Amino acid sequence: MNEFQPKIVAFCCYFCAYSAADLAGSMRLQYPPTVRMIEQPCSGRIDIQLILQAFEDGADGVYVAGCLEGDCHFLKGNFRAKLRVGQAKKVLDDVGIGGERVEMYNLSGSMGPRFAEVAHEMHERIKNLGPSPLNKTAASAPLPAAAGSE
Amino acid sequence: MIVAEQKSFDEISKMVESFDKVLILGCNECVTVCLAGGEKEVGVLATSLRLLRKQGDRPITTLEETVTRQCEWEYLDQIEKLAEEADCIISMACGVGVQYVAERFPDKWVIPALDTKCAGGSVKHGQWEERCGMCGECILHKTGGICPVARCSKRILNGPCGGSQNGKCEVKDVDCIWDQIYKRMMALGRMDQLLEIEPEKNWSKARDGGPRKLVREDVMIG
Ligand code: SF4
Ligand code: SF4
Ligand code: FES
């Protein structure tokens, strides 16, 4: 049977998560290929519309990774990001996709192992939740070789 | 400015249940500033509606536009084509804008996405407060520039009432505005002015006198 492989979009701040991902790479740490990263100049660049758009374009989960609280290079970007992720959770609950599919993380550029851990954590969470309601029909219908059906 | 707040998504989505192509119309003035119905909120509402409806068997098409002001005909003229295309228009303006849209496009069903709250302003980012009750005859020169009509829970003109406690209003969790009026008048050395009894207000100049209409013949042409 085809196992569900989620599509997860990670909006990563250039100064922390993005560098942490680099470090995780140099340390040869494994993390799930289901996570696709988008570099941001600061996690404060995130906007609720970007999060919603990711879901509309097929994501099953989204997370935003910013610097540790107090360490944002633009002072309050990661606090803004946190509030916006909270707002996105509410909207996703309202529209029936589920707020638990989006999360905010904070880490520093030197936290390569934590980066991999976060990726695993989100991968597991979304895997347990199953495909986004928008992807459900697509996932369950056209796979001819898949054994069994719903 | 006019302060408004978005209705719940549930309420809005129910109002558009029977429509397949909607124009979501924002307004660039007050409702943009109070983060309720500007271009950004138009985008979020449009995406939210699409996300919701994609999950059922009746997807929705959204047209998005934000005009300079919904309360002026000339800006509504600009969206005539878009309006024609849509089954209905969701107006994200204050109640004035919604009515202008309905009047300008008489054959369109128009839905309000906001609840219009008051004439007020932002006191800090993310917080808005009422300031004017649009009474039709301003008395701010008698109260130190602080309005008891809009800001005293009982609209008392010779306050404070007996419920004023430690600067707080007895009716709800707001500052007693008469306490503030007194403090300000005292600071300005104008306490004597407060000793004068303010006679009853002519409420016929306010909404109580029916809908108001203003005419300025000196600026009317042709
Ligand atoms: S006195 Fe009347 S017009 Fe003046 S601020 Fe108060 S409500 Fe508005
Ligand atoms: S406590 Fe002050 S603000 Fe409240 S009703 Fe009395 S006078 Fe008005
Ligand atoms: S610079 Fe990293 S979160 Fe702002």
Task: Describe, in plain words, how this protein is organized in 3D.
The complex is a heterodimer of chains A (150) and B (222). Chain A is built from five helices and four strands; from the N terminus they run βαβαβαβαα. With 150 residues, chain A is of the alpha/beta class. Chain A has one domain: Rossmann fold, CATH 3.40.50. Chain A has a four-stranded parallel β-sheet, sandwiched between helices. In chain A, strand 3, helix 3 and strand 4 form a beta-alpha-beta unit. Chain B has two domains: 117 residues, Rossmann fold; 76 residues, no CATH class. Chain B contains nine helices and seven strands, in the order βαβααβααβαβββααα. Helix content of chain B is 31%, strand content 20%. In chain B, the strands form two sheets. In chain B, strands 3-2-4-5 form a four-stranded parallel β-sheet, with helices on both faces. Chain B has a three-stranded antiparallel β-sheet with strand order 1-6-7. Chain B is elongated. In chain B, strand 6 and strand 7 form a beta hairpin. The complex binds iron/sulfur cluster (2 copies) and FE2/S2 (inorganic) cluster. The site of one iron/sulfur cluster has 15 residues of chain B, from helix 8.
Compact description:
The complex is a heterodimer of chains A (about 150) and B (about 220). With about 150 residues, chain A is of the alpha/beta class.
Overall shape of chain B: it is: elongated
Tally of separate domains of chain B: 2
Q: Average pLDDT across residues of chain A?
A: 91
End-to-end Cα distance of chain A, whole Å, is 12 Å
What is the succession of H and E elements of chain B? Answer: EHEHHEHHEHEEEHHH
The total of beta strands of chain B comes to: 7
The termini of chain B sit apart by 31 Å
Q: At the third CATH level, what is the topology name of chain A?
A: Rossmann fold
The fraction of residues assigned to DSSP E strands of chain A is: 15-25%
Report low-confidence residues of chain A grouped into runs of 5 or more: 140-150
Broad CATH class of the largest domain in chain B: Alpha Beta
**Hetero compounds:** iron/sulfur cluster, FE2/S2 (inorganic) cluster
The CATH architecture of chain A can be named as: 3-Layer(aba) Sandwich
- Bulk shape of chain A: globular
**Which percent range describes the beta-strand content of chain B?**
15-25%
CATH homologous superfamily placement of the largest domain in chain B: Response regulator
- Percent helix among the residues of chain A? 40-55%
Q: State the secondary-structure class of chain A.
A: alpha/beta
Q: Could you state the order of secondary-structure elements of chain A as H and E?
A: EHEHEHEHH
Query: What is the CATH architecture term of the largest domain in chain B?
Result: 3-Layer(aba) Sandwich
Q: Write out the strand line-up for the largest beta sheet of chain A, numbering strands in chain order.
A: 2-1-3-4
